[in-house]
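Researcher: I need the complex structure. Ligand is uridine-diphosphate-N-acetylglucosamine. Inputs:
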Amino acid sequence: MDKLVITGKTPLKGEVSISGAKNAAVAILPAALLLDGVCTIENLPNISDVKLLCEIIESLGAKINWVSENTITIDSRNISCTNAPLDLTRKFRASYYLIGALLGRCKNVQVGMPGGCKLGARPIDQHIKGFEALGASVDVGQGNITAKADRLVGNSIYMDIVSVGATINVMLASVLAEGTTVIDNAAKEPHIVDVANFLNTMGADVRGAGTDVIKINGVEKLSGNITYSVVPDQIEAGTFMLAAVASKGDLIIKNCTTKHLECITAKIIEMGANAEEIDGDTLHVWCNKKTSKANIKTLPYPGFPTDLQPQMGVVLSISDGTSIINESIWESRFQYTEELNKMGAKITAQGKTAIFEGVDSLYGSPVCASDLRAGAALIIAGICADGVTEIYNLEHIDRGYENIEEKFRKIGANIKRVSEDD
Ligand code: UD1
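Model: Output:
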């Protein structure tokens, strides 16, 4: 087991390049199974969730070739849809996209009930409602989900809540259905648009992604050879923006889509930090004074992303005055506050609300990453803290951040990964 050892306090300075989006990649890989052909996927983040998905996809009979660290080809001409390894699919959340993709391609699929970060109850009723509306029968039992259909026929589906996963999954299941599917109250996250663009590159007819109504005109087949590049990771870019602010640093963030970062840019400027767009994919973020308090409510895109809430929590912990975060998506997303309190923060979290009384400084401590984004927040906290911070449970962080310590080291952090036995 490894741990990260960080010696603070360092203002981060320099350039950092953002990887492809994890949440787009984990949907695009299953989506590639809809293609009776070969696709080349570029800008794929080299993270453990992607490697696990590749392993699952190969076990279904697809041939994967790593052309370089961030580019793969997937040949899914000869796949068998019902052999998804139940133990592997149970390991992470995004394996639920295999249901939509394989239902679409083969009309028959079984996967293990998806796992993933423990952020509270993570129901998939809206996914199931969508598959059933297309004509599938879905059974959940003994830790597995089975979905089958003789034929899939397009339908109108109103999502009771805005769900990233359900929106993407219904898109995947409906691209090869007969007729037209309309998803109402769809999620609008950048990765929804990216998955739709990927599907369209393969020959699908998906319109309206990025708005709350998505229309999918079913096509008979997706075939041929295509190449696609994954969109930059909004959450990774936001993590570095907040790291620049928290550490009173000065960062040029390259290969990001600045449009996707507007809600974060607006908030950090409101708090007294600076952000300037250099061009559509480069952002300059710097901060040379103590930031002021702010109130945050997490919301579906284009609102403030729940996946940046813990990282913003670090900034608020060392800002002037008392700030409040209201978490409206995940009920257990404040686990990181206990760890920050071990580092000298003054946070009271109850239910969906956390109150941050700003302190002058954090100090180093041994802490545990309870989930992926909590882990990112603890890295930022360690960089800002006096003394040495040790972060455990790195498997959560490795699921979603590519070369994280190398990226932070290049911009001045004193961070190293050591084996716990060392
Ligand atoms: C995705 C992201 C995750 C992010 C979240 C919200 C991936 C792999 N993960 O998760 O990082 O935190 O979006 O931006 O892309 N819900 C239901 N029924 C459903 C589905 C969801 O009640 O069938 C609820 C959830 O409990 C949650 C809310 O809807 O409260 C949003 O969930 P959803 O957008 O589906 O999140 P995920 O797709 O799981």
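Model: Summary of the prediction. Residues 234-246 form the longest helix (13 residues).
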